[in-house]
Inverse folding.
């Protein structure tokens, strides 16, 4: 089996293979010697895939490909913080990385997509059409960037919803006048509104109708 983390024998962070009793360790890659932290290693795509970062387990991890003793980053840092869970698919073709309650789908090629909660299988009332095209991240060329902090300038509380729809999306919290929010995904146009997936000051995430005809409620 493949294992990753600190070796009981040396204390170094390694990727290794052992038998099922965790004996007969054979080191494939010494991450400590390369100045890296490595974890959640698997065999996939003809090489070893693992999550890691320079230094220790104290921040966002990237996906690495380890081959012939060399670790190459396939993705940038995922989610902005250390993950609470990494779960590989049975085929090792992708992993779901959970960071601060949000989930990121990471492909074996290094692709990263934010998983918007509740959108799978959702349908617009009165139709059989799924809510297609809901973005998993910030679309290129949009007015905002992922992680950007903006201020809600409306006069009243504005609902945060589980889905970008006033009729389909259950209210999960609100954004208060003057509150700063973090941009996660968007935009999505529905019901005459431009929707953005946000995190409010209480770290509750949801979709907010940020603007419609004649109004825009986020500054800048």
């Amino acid at each position: 089996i493949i294992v990753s983390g600190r070796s009981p024998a040396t204390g170094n962070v390694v990727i290794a293979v052992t038998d099922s009793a965790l004996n007969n360790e054979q080191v494939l890659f010494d991450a400590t010697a390369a100045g890296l932290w490595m974890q959640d290693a698997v065999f996939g795509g003809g090489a070893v895939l693992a999550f890691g970062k320079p230094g220790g387990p104290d921040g966002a991890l990237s996906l690495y490909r380890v081959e012939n003793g060399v670790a190459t980053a396939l993705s940038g840092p995922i989610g902005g913080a250390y993950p609470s869970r990494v779960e590989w698919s049975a085929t090792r073709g992708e992993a779901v990385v959970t960071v601060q309650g949000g989930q990121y789908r990471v492909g074996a090629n290094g692709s990263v997509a934010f998983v918007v909660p509740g959108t799978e299988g959702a349908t617009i009332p009165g139709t059989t059409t799924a809510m297609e095209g809901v973005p998993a991240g910030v679309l290129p060329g949009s007015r905002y960037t992922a992680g950007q902090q903006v201020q809600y300038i409306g006069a009243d509380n504005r609902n945060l919803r589980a889905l970008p729809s006033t009729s389909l999306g259950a209210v999960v919290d609100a954004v208060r006048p003057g509150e700063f929010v973090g941009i996660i995904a968007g935009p999505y146009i529905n019901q005459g509104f431009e929707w953005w997936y946000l995190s409010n000051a209480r770290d509750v995430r949801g979709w907010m109708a940020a603007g419609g005809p004649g109004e825009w409620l986020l500054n800048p």
Notes: Residues 119-130 have pLDDT under 50 and may be disordered.
